[in-house]
Specification:
By secondary structure, the chain is of the alpha/beta class. It contains 23 helices and 22 strands.
Length: 633
């Protein structure tokens, strides 16, 4: 690690950020203090709503462009407090001294400009070149040479071709690499990365994390890396800061935080990380409840309503940060000493009630293929892409079947064919014994097919109509596929909301008024409303916090047990499905290269691609998984 200067590159002291609304001033971050040395990585960890992104945007002073914000405290960059700097001086820090990588690369890149032009503009802005000075051949040539060099450095070959493309012509991983290159165009001293690997498949995520480490080492750049995943923090961090409800609740060296965390929230976040070798047939660990919003403030510790160790003092008095040396914790009852837990061992699942995938399966996919074709306007030549290739599988009633693979492997296309949203180019999909889907459409009762098979999409925000209330969203399939009307329909909506763990008051809300986890529960309620036999779940937890992921997964497992539902659960997270699935299919380039029980998938004889997916999953590499607090402590 490079030698550190006496002056930290980032020194945040007593930072508080509040935003004004029509009725009140809401505090988003409260009295936050962190430091970061040159060449180090600070991972800021916490669930959505904990204040991580607000902190990063405040360091860049970008919040003031979107809302009336009041910032108190100090943000020192290499010894200079930037909180009170005039706009013109602050512009010299953005891009030049501080670079930022946003969560959604495609939303951050200009869709109407080619990649090369955007990189050149980023360089000119950092150098303060405007107007005629920016358009001189010399300035443009220098910027283009630097852009090509950085694109090659972040692992993008054929840089001339990449420079000529638009953002939508790149894959998600390539877009994120372009964002990293853009942030380095001015050689910043400090890099802020806001969830840069969220929703990427595990192999792409592993590549991006490796890239971050290499770039940081070669450029000696300090990095604030925001994530909700403690496994990612374990791979990236020199130091970890855990935020909750806008407050710093624990901070310290990564090795200490991962082997001997002191705050119960830190322990809970660690426990929520799926472990490939640990079977969770009874459900995944999760944190009950949710992070309080800015308006939900009360006298005691904000984590008290969710904490298993809460006492009367916790509920009535907020703890301050305390500690010695590099470690601090805000808790009245912190744990002490290291946690000694044996390394996990694979627990074989109980014998199934039936032989999954044999006689009378619920779903039978036979030699299914799907080819997409297009004709270019200029050459009139057809271009065909084979997304799925002569694939066969079966799913039994009540089976939880995990379908795993990278982006582009054909998982979603197969799921859409099973759900009847795409017609196969060849082969057939049979649901039960009397309904078959082929290229010619549904053979049998179409209404019965729609009732038997439902789908839960990856992003509930885009799959739920923002103009409809939750009640109207759930009623839609009930009106189409059941005879329920009037009071009986309203009662059924209340029952479904209760079944997915949502209060009855949710019925009158719009999707935009709900959290991500709540929206996904609404999507599940809509899917189970017509009493289906099979649910296709397409990456339903990929963009959720690990704690919310556990809640949603446990809901699906409860529905499986209580209703006997079959599931085709599509994901790129092999560790997750190894924890809960009955069987797993691994897809690669439109084919299933391996199907087996979890213990077979984990065996040394697994397919090389399966082993690659396992190696790419982020792991809690420092220390063993952390056990929950013993009862009575």
């Amino acid at each position: 690690m490079p030698a550190v200067s006496e002056t930290p590159i980032l020194d945040v002291r007593g930072l508080s950020v509040a935003v004004s609304t029509d009725t009140a001033e809401l505090e988003l971050v409260h009295h936050l203090s962190v430091t970061l040395e040159r060449g180090q990585t600070l991972c800021v960890v916490g669930e959505s709503g904990s204040g991580k992104t607000v902190t990063a945007l405040s360091i860049m002073r970008l919040l003031e462009f979107t809302a009336p914000v009041r910032t108190r405290g100090k943000i020192n960059i290499d010894g200079t407090d930037i909180v009170g700097l005039p706009d013109e001086e602050m512009r010299r820090y953005r891009g030049r001294r501080i670079g930022m990588i946003f969560q959604e690369a495609l939303e951050s890149l200009n869709p109407s400009q080619r990649i090369g032009r955007q990189l050149v503009e980023a360089h000119h802005a950092a150098q303060g070149l405007r107007g005629r000075r920016a358009r001189t051949p010399g300035a443009t040539d220098r910027a283009e040479r630097k852009a090509r060099g950085l694109l090659a450095e972040v692992g993008l070959a054929d840089t001339d071709r990449i420079m000529a493309l638009y953002p939508h012509q790149l894959s998600g991983g390539m877009q994120q690499r372009v964002m990293i290159a853009m942030s380095l165009m001015s050689d910043p001293d400090l890099l802020l990365a806001d969830e840069p690997t969220t929703a990427l498949d595990v192999t792409t995520q592993a590549d991006i994390l490796d890239l971050f480490r290499r770039v940081q080492r070669e450029h000696r750049t300090a990095c604030v890396f925001i994530t909700h995943d403690m496994a990612v923090a374990a791979e990236m961090a020199d130091r970890i800061a855990v935020m909750y409800g806008g407050r710093l609740v624990e901070a310290g060296p990564a090795a200490d935080m991962l082997t001997a965390p002191r705050h119960p929230y830190t322990r809970a976040l660690l426990d929520c990380v799926p472990q490939a070798e640990v079977r969770r047939t009874g459900g995944l660990p999760s944190i009950p409840g949710s992070v309080p919003g800015p308006a939900e403030r009360f006298a005691g510790c904000l984590y008290a309503p969710r904490c298993p160790r809460v006492t009367e003092r916790c509920a009535g008095e907020e703890p301050g940060l305390a500690g010695t040396g590099d470690s601090r914790v805000a808790c009245w009852h912190p744990a002490t000493g290291p946690v000694d837990v044996e390394a996990p061992a694979l627990v074989a699942p109980p014998a199934p009630s039936g032989d999954f995938g044999t006689a009378s399966p619920l779903l039978q996919v036979r030699d299914v293929g799907k080819t997409f074709g297009s004709v270019t306007r200029l050459s009139r030549r057809s271009r065909q892409v084979r997304a799925v290739r002569n694939l066969s599988l079966s799913v039994a009633r009540g089976e939880f079947f995990g379908l795993v693979g990278e982006s582009g492997s054909g998982k979603t296309t197969l799921g859409r064919m099973i759900a009847g949203l795409e017609r196969p180019s060849s082969g057939s999909v049979a649901v039960g014994e009397d309904i078959v889907l082929t290229g010619g459409g549904v053979q049998g009762d179409k209404r019965a097919f729609r009732q038997r098979v439902q789908i839960v999409f990856q992003d509930p925000q885009s799959s739920l109509d923002p103009r409809y209330t939750v009640s109207a969203i759930i009623k839609e399939p009930l009106r189409e596929l059941t005879p329920l009307r009037g009071d009986a329909l309203d009662e059924r909506v209340r029952e479904l909301l209760d079944e997915v763990g949502l209060p009855a008051s949710t019925a009158g809300k719009l999707p935009g008024q709900l959290s991500g986890g709540q929206r996904q529960r609404v999507a599940i309620a809509r899917a189970i409303a017509p009493e289906p036999e099979l649910i296709v779940a397409d990456e339903p937890t990929s963009a959720l916090d690990v704690s919310v992921q556990g809640q949603v997964m446990n809901l699906l497992l409860d529905l499986k047990r209580e209703r006997g539902l079959g599931f085709v659960f599509i994901t790129h997270n092999l560790s997750l499905v190894l924890s809960v699935a009955d069987r797993i299919g691994v897809m690669y380039q439109g084919e299933i290269v391996e199907i087996g029980r979890p213990e077979a998938i984990l065996s040394p004889h697994a397919h090389p691609y399966t082993r690659r997916l396992l190696q790419a999953n982020p792991k809690l590499t420092i220390g063993a998984p952390v056990a929950p607090y013993p009862a009575g402590t």
